[in-house]
Design goal:
α2 (24-54) runs antiparallel to α11 and α5 runs antiparallel to α6. This protein has helices at residues 14-18, 24-54, 59-87, 89-105, 107-113, 116-142, 150-158, 161-176, 184-192, 196-205, 208-226, 234-240, 254-275, 277-285, 289-313, 319-339, 343-356, 359-368, 375-384, 388-403, 406-409, 411-425. It has 441 residues and is an all-alpha fold.
Amino acid sequence: MLTPAPGAQKQAGVAARLVPLGMGLPFILVTSLFFLWGVPNNLNDVLIRQFMKSFAISRFQAGLVQSAFYMGYFLLATPAALLMRKYGYKAGILAGLCLLGTGTLLFWPAAIVARYSFFLFALFVIASGLSFLETAANPFIAQLGEGTGGARRLNFSQAFNPLGSILGVLVGTIFIFSGVELNAGQIAAMKAAHTYDAYLRHETLRVVDPYLVLGAVAFFLAFVIWRTKFPAVAGEESSDAGNHGRYSDLLRYPHFLLAILAQFMYVGAQVGTWSYFIQYVQDSTHQPEKIAGYFLTGTLAAFGVGRFSSSALMKYVRPGRLMGVYSVINVALLAVGILHPGWVGLWAIFATSFFMSVMYPTIFALGIEGLGRNTKIGGSLIVMAIVGGAVLTPAMGLLSQYSHSIAVAYSIPLACYFFVAFYAFVGCKIGQRIGASPAAA
């Protein structure tokens, strides 16, 4: 571990105390990936609203954006783990960046043919790349230094993810949303004048440029990382020895199995909350789409503040306890948002982003703790749990349609936070392995 010089210890940053000697550049490059994948993750929240307009589809159909996206995470996490078991974390990162770049390039032909299904396929390819990146980056950062600091170190790197999320929503709000929202009368008039199809095509083409820029950044980072030497971390050393671990071993880690379910619940809550937040703002306060987009940007900023502050708080509060308290607070805030839709409910749901910020990296770090040689495959299964976003987001869309209220749909993330609280206070403390000590791994 790097040790600050005498008299400078108080001034040394969190990263300087947690990053081992010789790993500074790889740490910075991998941490930049957390920022990068935040951009397409939260551009989806803008796409849902934009596709409802440009393809004239329902909330449930628009929610399939998240289904296609998170199915990519689900289906590619295991291939990512298998690739990394043989070739290491760096190979997984390079594969992920190339898939990400390829998926963004597909947005151009998808817009030309104006097919919603083509866009869903492009999003699937993008998410496949992000699955490789997350399967590699999360355990790489968690294992980079002392194991006891894994949750705090991962929270620090993950703190850059909401900065990318903010950029994604801001770019989407400015460059994708046109600000033109037609009522039924205007649509009928444009159809009569045979201009409505041209309007829809123009709205569809607005999504292309941000994704092409994102693809260029992904390919550039792939080149830089390809040229950078990555020293082996703890998990890499086990792989080099041919000791890759087995999926069957993971059944003997109850804290890990519960982490998979907790991550499923958390990601479903996070993705669903943000996916329909623009709609919640518009339905409850009747603000235009651009104003709603700026509110979404603000709640992501709160998420970023929460990530950085939680990293600091973990010097004094155990990660599991902090996550548990934050989960209970989110249950209360969502109850307000459901029962009091309007400005009070808006600000309550807005605040949940601050308190959810600690959950993904903390669940991940607590889940892989003590897995030893099984860390890569274990990490891939926790990444697969991101499929919660694919399942629970359209479920929220269906609930909102049947109840005729987007506010009622937020009862789904409320239930999710109940389980996250259970994991934080109870589940993560269950024995790390049934029938053997963690050291045996």
